[in-house]
Amino acid sequence: MPLRDHFRPPVWNKVSWEGFHAMWPAAIIQRLLPQLPEDYTAEPRVHLGTNFEIDVCAFEPDYPRSVHHGSGADDGGVATAVWAPPEPTLAVDVDASEQYAYEVLIFDQTRARLLVAAVELVSPGNKDRPESRRAFVTKCAALIGQGVSVSIVDLVTIRNFNLYAETLEQIGVTDPAFGKSVPATYAATCRGRKVHETPRFESWAYPLVIGQALPTLPLWLTDDLAISLDLEASYEDTCRVLRIA
Length: 245
What we know:
The chain has five helices and eight strands. By secondary structure, it is α+β, with helices and mostly antiparallel strands. The chain has a six-stranded mixed β-sheet with strand order 1-2-3-4-5-6, sandwiched between helices. A two-stranded antiparallel ribbon has the order 7-8.
């Protein structure tokens, strides 16, 4: 089945982009798990910006509570000291960049749960502003520098930026696979490794075209061991579950 345009009719008004890309990581994992060696695990991560993710939570109950203000000495209560924090040493208004992440992470359990591969699904929020693009590119470049195999998959047709090409700029190279016309939608796997003690960067990149099938990318677990990231299969799994024709 061909790649659909998830940001224009008839797809976008049937299933939201957020719904599709929240489910796709799980479909990717279902396809990866049969290939993963026993000592490797994969898990999805979805982060929808600072307004949607809370790592440490404090909840206020929605039922009435009695509030005790006494000292505890005369009314039988327990004295409670209210701590007043000092004024902040710095207080400025900032433009907080919303970072959206839809990804699959693969860990090697034999190496203390070492992150060895990541699949990054690009969102419109990753491409909307220079600082958002810079944050995404910096993240990918840092992972590659740490020896993590990084696959970038971008279906966003409404913003004409190529974050894979911008990631390559971080290390001072370009990909001849795209030529002078860099596509807005693409899929690529990048990795860094050493060949005879010489650092080498390698990538496998393909343009994504509406109406055509998605490619299969290598997903490297070690320098010599790769499994296949069948984007077409997991993509169709997701479309079928969400009833996207």
